Amino acid sequence: MPDWLFPLAFVGVGVAVFVIGFVGLRRSFALRREGVRAEGWVVRLETTSDGQGGSIHRPVVGWVTDDGRRMEVESPYGRSWVGRFRPGSPVRIRYDPRRPERMRIDGYGHGVQVVFMLVGTAFMVGGISVALRLAA
User: For the chain, give me the number of helices (H) and strands (E)?
Assistant: First the structure.
């Protein structure tokens, strides 16, 4: 097996991580552009273990859609600190009117997607540079 083949596995992982971040960011921008704005409130926090002795808190947001449906949706993003998302706190959201369970809190969670894209890029560049050095 050629030495340069192993670093290409890093390229594959990098591509996968980059695509995950890119698709998530694209969906967020589509929701920002085409979604319906609504005023909501934090109903509660869903807390799960981060697997290392800490906790991840995801806000569950309630709001009423334009057609009168009462919604309660957990944010796909969480943090290790509660911050401004205490139960009862007001939040601005955007949601997809065709699928209101697709909701994003304005200004929350986009950084995760950018980090995924940067990490994916680093894996791709690192893997390609090592593979090229080993192939030479």
Answer: 2, 5
Token pair in block for residue 63: 């709001």
Distances (CA, A) of 62 to 42, 48, 66, 108, 124: 6, 20, 13, 16, 40
Question: pTM of the entire structure?
Answer: 0.72
Question: Cα 48 vs. chain centroid, distance in angstroms?
Answer: 16
Q: Which two tokens stand for residue 45?
A: 């926090």
3-class DSSP assignment, residue 95: strand
pLDDT digits (tens, 9 = 90+) for 81-131: 777 888 999 999 999 999 999 999 987 776 888 899 999 999 999 999 998
Specify burial of residue 57 (Cβ count, 10 A radius: 0-12, 13-18, 19+): middle
